[in-house]
Amino acid sequence: MSERKVTSKYYPPDFDPSKLGRVRQRGPKGPKRIPVRLMAPFSMKCTRCSEYIYKGRKFNAQKETTDEKYYSIPIYRFYIRCTRCSSEITFKTDPKNMDYECEQGARRNFEPWREGKLAEETEEETLDRLEREEAERDPMKELEGKQVDAKTEMAIADALDEIRMRNARIEREGQGGTEAVQVVREQLDEEKKRQEMEDEEAARRAFARAGKTDENWDGGGILVDAMDMMDAIVEEVDGVGDAVSEAPAQEEKPIVEVVKPKPPVPEFKRIIKKKQKPLLAGIKGKQVANPLGIVGGDSDSD
């Protein structure tokens, strides 16, 4: 009996290895698929059984490298199975939008943030728009705009120079600040005095004009002088004050103080009223006198 595990095998003398057929490997045709473990990149709904597959669910998938490329970036395709009906679902990468694209077997759920992002302008669209604007640009309008900008800059520079000069002048005046304040005060005082003199002159002319009017009306009578009238009124007031001060003082009557009697001091004593006892209360328990000497029937003498 031969051994079960041998290191050499028997080949008959008429063995011809060229007559052996080549054994081909069984497997899917096309690009090679690599088994991988991944999570669903987006939430989706199966088109066959309407099963919802949430984002982040783990699957045993197969990865395949496609012939498509985006700027030398390869695009990969992934194959997974539905968790309910086991139908095949495929999706691939989308380097342009930095996302994934669902191909068949499922439908991607609506995502508001994704719709808004797709509506935004991409870098390529931005470059195309800038190129179109560059081609449609008007050189005359640009020249006019440059002239306006130059005038604005000059005006701003002049305003800054004026502000600097004013600040320097204020700084110089600030060093002798007390002298400047004194000068301003003197100017104000002179202006006040001049105003007062003008007012006095106007009042004098008005009084003089009023005096002449009264003289013409009286037919050459007395010239009314307002100042003299005021002096006369002041003298009368002084005379009345002197008369009052020289009047003899009246004798002062003695003040009699009326002494009122003091009210009685209230006593806070509790008054207890005694109850009157009935007349028979004193007779109870005492022997009643017998003025007639009547003796009862029940006695020892009998």
Provide a compact summary of the structure.
By secondary structure, the chain is an alpha+beta fold. The protein has 5 helices and 8 strands, in the order E-E-E-E-E-E-E-E-H-H-H-H-H. Among the domains are: 33-124, no CATH class; 176-225.
Task: Tell me the layout of helices and strands.
Blueprint: E1 33-39, E2 44-46, E3 52-53, E4 58-70, E5 73-81, E6 88-94, E7 99-104, E8 106-108, H1 112-119, H2 123-135, H3 139-175, H4 177-218, H5 226-246
Antiparallel strand pairs: 1-4, 2-3, 2-8, 4-5, 5-6, 6-7
Overview features:
3-stranded antiparallel beta sheet; 302 residues; 5-stranded antiparallel beta sheet; alpha+beta; 5 helices; disordered C terminus
Could you walk me through the main structural features you see in this protein, from its secondary elements to its overall organization?
This protein has 302 residues and is an alpha+beta fold. Among the domains are: 33-124, no CATH class; 176-225. The chain contains 5 helices and 8 strands. It has helices at residues 112-119, 123-135, 139-175, 177-218, 226-246; strands at residues 33-39, 44-46, 52-53, 58-70, 73-81, 88-94, 99-104, 106-108. The strands form 2 sheets. The chain has a 5-stranded antiparallel beta sheet, with no helix packed on it. Strands 3-2-8 form a 3-stranded antiparallel beta sheet, with no helix packed on it. The protein starts with 32 loop residues before the first strand and ends in a 56-residue tail after the last helix.
